[in-house]
Write a structure and sequence with these properties.
The protein is α/β, with parallel strands linked by helices. It is built from ten helices and 13 strands. It folds into two domains: 8-38 and 284-372, Alpha-Beta Complex (Aspartate Aminotransferase, domain 1); 41-279, Aspartate Aminotransferase, domain 2 (3-Layer(aba) Sandwich), CATH 3.40.640. Helix 5 (122-130) links the parallel strand 2 and strand 3. It binds pyridoxal-5'-phosphate (PLP). Pyridoxal-5'-phosphate binds next to helix 4.
């Protein structure tokens, strides 16, 4: 830190100029992100609540109430009648809390979790942090976990099984209905990572069974800061049964509240306020409109890619398109140099494009035109 302060005006001017080096969602060229430009109402709501701390709720009762309302709306959307949960820092924290609760409930000496090969890397972090052994289940030809393999991997040490509704790499939706039956048969916790798909699947026509309507689903991750268009950070964790929160409880002796359930202590109420504001502004109708545009655009991209000679890795299940070229890695580097920010996925040797709300039809046309030359 410098010895003397600088005038705030100059500080802000410097930040403004530095910010210009960041990529912008509005350019339509960020094709690798599961986040998007937050809805304009999210930004305003965030500013209003940016001082509030959900880690000290007696001081900020309005923020706490807004968090409860966000959780109630998510629970309602995902058919969790008496579900309980929190607005957290993102999918990583949500997945951590789900597996921590499942582990604490069983209290096994050598706990294991069964993960699809396609599970998000946040589960690797979680396993390292809380001492869970990951046991990986392989996928079928459509990049969805194979439920019969999951069943074979269940042992006396299994504390949970995980399914993903909208994988990070391909947007694949695991057969959660089959996993639910297995979870019930073996009386094991099923966690559904719907960080991405949780605010897509409820709004599409060809619905997948993936939520608390399936009796075996015990917890779900759903992130307002991805397709929910809330400001970062806004993740969500939901438990079917309120009692599960007891396995996450930590006493907080010097605070106005006497306990915490989340991993993060000081939590911005602005996250909950931004999600609340977008939910209220868009409603089911607004989300349905936005999601259906993204899905349509993903199909336009998929068909366009095939037309100019690229091979799709698989038919998109949600709004993620993955394709291969002759030299896919080199192509992804060329695209970055041309200002198209795609991701290269080594394990499938493919390029992945996430068709988020900021990616419009004109951007897809320009991208295809660049690929065709
Ligand atoms: C399926 C899935 N789960 C978990 C996460 C982790 O979420 P976050 O980056 O918000 O912690 C992601 C992130 O993209 C994801 O796609």
């Amino acid at each position: 830190m410098q010895p003397k302060g600088t005038h705030a005006r100059d500080v802000i001017a410097e930040l403004k100029s530095r910010n210009e080096q960041n990529k912008r969602y509005t350019s339509g060229r960020i094709l690798c992100s599961m986040c998007t430009s937050p809805h304009s109402v999210a930004k305003k709501a965030y500013q209003q609540f940016f001082e509030s701390n959900l880690g000290d709720q007696a001081l900020f009762p309005a923020a706490a109430e807004i968090e409860r309302e966000v959780i109630a709306q998510l629970s309602d959307l995902l058919h969790g009648k008496d579900a309980a949960g929190f607005v957290v820092s993102g999918g990583t924290e949500a997945n951590l809390l789900a597996l921590l609760a499942a582990k604490n409930k069983t209290n096994l000496a050598q706990p294991e979790v069964i993960l699809p090969d396609s599970a998000h890397f946040s589960f690797t972090k979680t396993c390292n942090l809380i001492g869970l052994k990951p046991v990986y289940a392989s996928l079928d030809g459509n990049y969805r976990v194979n439920p019969s393999i999951v069943e074979k991997l269940i042992s006396k040490n299994t504390v949970a099984i995980v399914g993903t509704a909208g994988t990070a790499e391909l947007g694949a939706v695991d057969p959660i209905d089959d996993l639910s039956k297995i979870a019930l048969r073996y009386n094991v916790h099923l966690h559904v990572d719907a960080a991405f798909g949780g605010l897509i699947i409820p709004f599409i026509e060809k619905a997948f069974a993936f939520d608390f309507n399936l009796e075996g689903v015990e917890s779900m991750t759903v992130d307002p800061h991805k397709m929910g268009m809330a400001a970062i950070p806004a993740g969500g964790i939901l438990f079917r049964r309120k009692e599960m929160l007891g396995y996450l409880k930590t006493e907080t002796p010097y605070l106005s509240d006497n306990c915490h359930y989340t991993f993060v202590g000081t939590r911005s109420g602005a996250s909950a306020a931004s999600a609340w504001a977008v939910f209220k502004t868009l409603g089911v109708e607004g989300y349905t409109r936005i999601v259906s545009k993204c899905i349509k655009n993903a199909h336009v991209l998929a068909r366009g890619l095939e037309k100019i000679g690229y091979t799709l890795l698989c038919e998109p299940q949600l709004n993620i398109v993955a394709f291969k070229a002759k030299n896919t890695k080199q192509l992804s580097e060329t695209l970055w140099r041309k200002g198209w920010y795609v991701s290269y996925i080594p394990r499938y040797d493919c390029i992945r494009v996430v068709v988020m709300p900021h990616v419009k039809r004109r951007h897809i046309s320009a991208f295809l035109a660049d690929l065709a030359t």
